[in-house]
């Protein structure tokens, strides 16, 4: 699978990066770039119904924990290898501790403001969201050890 999204840590020419960007799913979503460190985001080009499948994620590869990876178990991460990424993705639903915490841009009334991972959020906050099995188990371990 060709990689169509260059994961630039620092964007110094957002216009040039956008011009070189080739979306994997035109018309569904696109990456919006701004100059600065880790300053891009995935934006939907249309509304999606709750529970609707947006697209298949194929061609993932195992990799180390990094700011670009997605945690899929207590000790495994994958790279998505495309521009399919966040779309209002609640990172703590799969990430115990972010490799590169960042400020959230979602604008939700219940926004957590700083995305650091499930480890740093209360049981009450985490109960609002669907979370993966490995995160649920980690939350239970954390809460059991602090009781």
| Main sheet specs | 3 strands, antiparallel
N-to-C order of helices and strands: EHEEEEEEEEHH
Shape: globular
The number of E-state strands comes to 9
From the alpha-carbon coordinates, what is the Rg to the nearest angstrom? 16 Å
Number of helices: 3
Bin the strand percentage. Answer: 15-25%
- What structural category characterises the helix and strand content? alpha+beta
- Helix fraction, binned, reads 10-25%
Strand order of the largest sheet: 5-7-6
Rounded to the nearest angstrom, the distance between the terminal CA atoms is 47 Å
* Uncertain parts: 1-8
Mean pLDDT figure: 80
InterPro entries: Flavunoidine_N-MTase, SET_dom_sf
Protein name: SET domain-containing protein
Organism: Lunasporangiospora selenospora
Task: Give a verbal description of the structure.
The chain has 147 residues and is an alpha+beta fold. It has a domain of 60 residues. The protein is built from 3 helices and 9 strands. It has a 3-stranded antiparallel sheet. Strands 1-3 form a two-stranded antiparallel ribbon. The radius of gyration is 16 Å and the shape is globular.
